[in-house]
Specification:
This protein is α/β, with parallel strands linked by helices. About 50% of the residues lie in helices and about 10% in strands. Helix 5 packs parallel to helix 14, helix 6 packs across helix 11 and helix 12 packs parallel to helix 13.
């Protein structure tokens, strides 16, 4: 727990002075005050996260961190795809052929893959390995992992964030890959929101009605068997979570500790963000919700976090694809503060 406690101790509230400077500048630009809406809000928030205004150049260097893990609950028939797809897709990410790679390239961002707990071991020069165990156990029959393994996964995610911040990345984003991972995410959300699987379980990879019923039953059984306590987020991760989900929670904590904005992708990433905020509440101001997924439960997860998404494109792929599409909005918010004329410089009369 030492790394987690140390990272938590470094998280600071957003810099109010930097945000005030940003708003003062935005109000001098040639437009009615506030007329660029959430782009202005985003620019001011970025200043608060960075602790400075003008915004630092490092905000232009962005990475999507795709964390991968396998899930024992797949034994319950909760996914339309076999478990071997997890390492196959990770190799696709590493080769640059997945949707997240295409969208990240378009946004000028890098994709970083991390093995948090795949059943299969992959050797690749571009793969970061922080494997805690070879997949979780079947949460429908007992805990997904031990409490120690959950803490280890969170701290591994913190370490990844710190390493990338040290390497000069100014914005990070969450992505994930793990066949079956909408099932533990739905279980975690049901616990954190105090609701039933009917509300949180969606079709994920596209299961049919019978598969959907199996998923709901697996989530209900996992909660009944493990009795996770919403007031103990580490315990929730251990009992009904996933290795990559815990890693993403750690990534959020580590990013906040480094003063780095974290763009949150879809359903699984948002549930991981809830866990991060329950572990360390100071994380929340550093989160940017990318989009509203079509996956059942995602709106509820965003509501639990009290975050409004930047986009709604009826997507539900995961991987970090929604986050990649949000990066240009961050670039736009920064560009407005740097390139737009003021009333004084343009010789335009104020209202």
């Amino acid at each position: 727990m030492d790394r987690l406690k140390e990272a938590a101790s470094r998280i600071r509230p957003l810099d109010e002075n930097a945000m005030a400077k940003a708003w003062a500048h935005l109000d001098r630009l040639t437009k009615p005050p506030g007329s660029l809406g959430r782009l202005e809000q985003l620019a001011a928030a970025l200043a608060g996260m960075a602790g400075s205004f003008p915004l630092p150049d490092k905000i232009g260097r962005k990475a999507i961190v795709v964390m991968a893990g396998d899930h024992g609950v797949c034994e319950e028939g909760v996914s339309a795809f076999p478990q071997e797809v997890t390492p196959q897709m990770v190799l696709n990410f590493l080769a640059g052929g997945a949707a997240v790679n295409v969208l990240a390239r378009q946004a000028g961002a890098d994709v970083i893959c991390v093995d948090m707990g795949m059943k299969t071991d992959i050797t690749h020069e571009k793969l970061m390995v922080a494997k805690v165990k070879h997949g979780t156990d079947n949460m429908a029959r007992g805990p997904a992992m031990s409490r120690e393994e959950a803490v280890q996964s969170v701290e591994a995610g913190i370490a990844v964030a710190e390493q990338l911040a040290e390497a000069g990345y100014g914005v990070l984003a969450t992505g994930e890959m793990g066949i079956g991972n909408t099932t533990p995410s739905a279980a975690m959300l049901a616990v954190f929101a105090g609701t039933d699987a009917e509300v949180t379980v969606g079709r994920g990879t596209g299961v049919d009605d019978a598969g959907l019923a199996r998923k709901r039953e697996a989530v209900r059984r996992a909660i009944a068997v493990n009795e996770p306590d919403a007031s103990d987020p580490i315990g929730v991760l251990a009992k009904v979570g996933g290795l990559e989900i815990a890693g993403l929670a750690g990534l959020a904590i580590g990013a906040a500790a480094c003063g780095v904005p974290l763009v949150v992708d879809g359903f699984i990433s948002t549930v991981a963000a809830i866990a991060a905020c329950r572990i360390v509440p100071g994380v929340k101001p550093y989160l940017i919700a990318s989009h509203l997924s079509d996956e059942r439960g995602h709106k509820l997860a965003l509501d639990v976090l009290e975050l409004a998404p930047m986009l709604h494109l009826s997507m539900r792929l995961g991987e970090g694809t929604g986050a990649a599409l949000t990066f240009p909005l961050i670039d736009a918010a920064k560009a407005i503060t740097e390139q737009m004329a003021t009333f004084e410089s343009a010789g335009v009369s104020r209202a």
